Amino acid sequence: MANIESGPPVAVAAEQFKQGGRLASRMVASVALPAAAVLVALICGAVLLAASGFNPWDVFTVMLAGVFQDMRSIAEVLLKATPLILIGVGLCVAFRCSIWNIGAEGQLYAGAVAATAVGVAFDGLTAWVYVPLVIVAGALAGAAWAAIAGLLKIYFRASEIVTTIMLNYIAIISTSYLVTGPLRDAAAAYPQSARLVKEAWMPRILPPTRLHVGILIALMLAVAVYVFLFRSSKGFAVRVVGISPHAARYAGMSVSRNIMLAICISGAMAGLAGAFEIAGVTRRLYQNISPGYGFEGIAVALLANNNPIGAIFSGVLFAVLRSGSELMQITAQVPQVLVSVIQGIVILSVVGFGVYRYRAVRPSE
Amino acid sequence: MEDLATLGFIATTLGATWRLATPLIFAAIGEVFSERAGVLNIGLEGVMLMGAFFGFAAAFTSGSIMLGLLAAIAAGLAMGLLFAVFTITVKADQIVVGAAINLIGLGLTAFLFRTYFVSTGKGVEIARPIAVPWLVDLPLVGEALFRQNALVYSTVLVALLAVFVLYKTSFGLTLRAVGEHPKAVDVAGRSVALYRYGAVLICCSLTAFGGAFLTLGHSNQFVEGITSGRGFIALAVVVFARWSPTGAFFVALLFGLFYSLQLQLQAQPGLLVPYQLFQALPYIMTILALMLVRNKGDTPAMLGVPFRKS
Amino acid sequence: MTITRRTCIAGMAAMATSLAAGRASAQAAFKMGLLVPGSVAEEGWNRIAYDALKRVEKELGAEVSYVELHDNPTAFEGAFRNYASQGYDVVLGHGFQFQDAALNVAPEFPDTVFLISSSYIYEGNVIGLNTDSSEPFYLMGVIAAKTGKSAGLIGGMEIPPIKQSFEGFINGAKSVDPNFEVPQVYLNSFTDATAGKEAALSMIARGVGIVVPNANAAGLGVIQAARESGPKVRTFSVYSDYTEIAPQNILGTYLADYGQGIVRIVSEVKGGNFKPESNIVFGLKDPDVMKFSYNDGATDAVPADVRSYVDEIKTKIVAGEIVTRQK
């Protein structure tokens, strides 16, 4: 399987890259078009701002200036990018397999709950053991939560779009139960868990900022997932199932095994994101721990054309938008909700410019 | 006495069920049209919010519920057109575009509400309940069920109309064929794209109408995120209902029932289980229902697949 | 691409100037920042803080700014730091969930006062502010029990400010009538006005005479339900005045004039004489902050004898003779 890309059922993306021909045009396709898409979105945002009586130029400059003000603000952006990259990278795998996992939000909560449960449980472990334990617990819980949707799809042919949405609600409601009930901090009246044992805290890498090792792990995982998807035979099988389950079956690949693999990887990544938020940032579990990272992660993967390396950049971009929108509100009092309009338009321009070339083919049943 | 209380409990639950199901019925029947034509629109939540907001905004400024409803439908059509251009003409992935529609709907309604209505605080007059003669005098259930506003009653009409259009007209026949064998429709000389545009626009106007029910037929206010996930539930309703409009009507009622039971059971004294269990019930039931009905292969064959003339 | 680059450069330039300006004005103007956990367009909890901020701006001539951080604990610390490093004198985190983040940031910025709503913290420059809603709710409970057999409580989420207020209501009601029934429902949402209305309607259908919301925007549904169910169904207007929406049904209004309390504290900070010896609790003892008034236009307006009884209770609460909830 040395030269995978030239095998008969080639990935659509690869084919189109070849049609594109030389490296230069590939560069244009993978950088200029997303950039143009973002630009269009910003212009639409500017129009909306101007129509509501704000000066778009001022708003955007304030936003950018604030986001890149100093080490600390850059660290804050990377802190927000960490869960987005993790979730986006995981969803690349699911989407390449034509699994529409809309449930990263719930998987993130599952990971956060597991990380908390483990992180408050033990005494006297060294950080070298405890931190990995917490992280693995989060990943496993995320994978398990996603696996429910996978099993339902395989054994009951239940649409994962519907089941993952339902599992989101169930995860969030369960978390709310856990922090008001069994996991509640006995010492406080608040609906929050106890603080994680100190040895379970993820180390910070850039004091005095809050940036923790999670960002490095996320970057390494992005590369690893890229290698898995595009340079390994297992990843090849995942993509073939995504393009044509018939071809996969014909080639002797197990469709259900690959579906499970893809959905569990994406769930594990979302679970990791949850564990990192707990062990790296908040150090306790709250009723609401995600401002919708799971849904934003979908856009992160799509903007990257389901390429894990690309997801790093789109993850950072969305984090910049998020940080910027907070600043936009602080300094210019522009309602932060505007950012979701801009995100929506980014996605539409991305598909409009044809950046999003990879198209899922629904496995016909 | 105890029995009477129980019967009253059932009657109020039924009344609440119908009201809570109303937005779901509109959105789910809309989605049936869209999915039957092969277009999966997961942007219902965003469209519903647009309907809720523009319905409220128009009714608030004009003082007329009728104008509000029309504005909601117009907003739905605008969102539908946006969705259709990208999914049908540009042939982009429907889930991707649907996700964008949700983001835009959520952000735009909140942004506009913030900019133009934030400090008004006052609401609109909502549609008045109308008693159905004779039926309202039925013992026990009469008052609870047949003193609703016209929007609630219209769900029955919409369901019947949907059945008629989908199964008894040539438009409906062709629309369903577009979702199963678009090539055949194309060969027969009809435009697949046109039918899909039609289906999406029907879907989005109904969904927006369902959203307008929330602000003009139930609460008298717009609240950011007032739909609270109802657009997503409507998607589940469609799958559960096996893409049938009558099915969608009854499944939506079932969800309404879960929801109203959830609210009622919480208020019962001496509950032994955490109330969150009741809140999760509709979602757990959806999953169980999907396991029970399984996929019998009646999914529209071309659902989610853009059509390309070859 | 050039446009993007130009934006960046312009951004850098703007940054430099804004930083300089920021430093200069830090000495001149008094500044207050606010972190809210939801939308300030929403009636209720978040709006109260926003109104308070606006009053500080108007009455104390302060420069103010706020940021909404929906369900996003990760962002809290950054937002506190943002304000503090820009030389803000007071930053208010509106909710107990901001406490941890403030404690982490506060030691670095000893000149900034960090106020946390609905918290009992008292540590260095981090001070908890609490509006003890259990006290006015206790009064509402007394009124409910004096004039009826049962009352329904509809809460947004099961969080301390709401749970405490309900505890006060139940204690007040039971002090009058130990058999008084108080069903409770949590909507798990502050935005689902539809659910709020249906929850209230189902309680009303079961014969509950008074429905009381504490659910921000979703609570508007409860008022709507009372209004539609006729003048016999009663309710209270909580935190904001909704009397206009249901003039026949609203027995009274509990207004938390948090703004007044905040203005008081912030003006002390401004004058340099803010030296609290414990966390701060606003209660009925602060009539300028916590206002409870009757609506004489209600169909079943609270009768005079009940009012004078309530006044007695109020005096006892202020004197500390009645404890409205377990502390």
Describe the structure concisely.
Chain B is mostly helical and 310 residues long.
Strand order of the largest sheet of chain B: 1-2
Under CATH, the homologous superfamily of the largest domain in chain C reads: Response regulator
Question: What structural category characterises the helix and strand content of chain B?
Answer: mainly alpha
Shape of chain C: globular
- Separate helix tally of chain C: 10
Which band does the percent of strand residues of chain C land in?
Answer: 15-25%
Your description of this structure?
The complex is a heterotrimer of chains A (365), B (310) and C (327). By secondary structure, chain A is mainly alpha-helical. Helices cover 70% and strands 0% of the residues of chain A. By secondary structure, chain B is an all-alpha fold. Chain B contains twelve helices and two strands; from the N terminus they run H-H-H-H-E-H-E-H-H-H-H-H-H-H. In chain B, helix 2 packs parallel to helix 4 (94-117). Chain C folds into two domains: 4-131 and 258-282, Response regulator (Rossmann fold, 3-Layer(aba) Sandwich), CATH 3.40.50.2300; 134-256 and 296-318, Rossmann fold, CATH 3.40.50.2300. Residues 1-27 of chain C have low confidence and may be disordered. The longest helix of chain C has 27 residues, at 2-28.
